[in-house]
Design brief:
The chain is mostly helical. The chain has a domain of 55 residues. 63% of the residues lie in helices and 0% in strands. The mean pLDDT is 84.
Length: 87
Amino acid sequence: MSDGSDGAVFGEDAARLGRDLLAQGIASDVETVRERLSVLWTDLAIDIWLTSANARLDGARPIDVLALDGLEPVIEAIEIEVAGGSR
């Protein structure tokens, strides 16, 4: 029987740890996205773009795509935005 001193985390603590690790893992990708979009928008507009459904990402939120698929598909969506929003 464990007394809880083995360092294991459960429940909300485990979920929080997972979110924190994910955020740390994509922090540099988010910074790259912010740099690219700063030529078009304010920080607030970039925050909204990152957390809103995006048609160019099949309805996924860019922040989720960064976490699941990496930077490349998000950069492609940004390039479309920078070019005027259409292919």
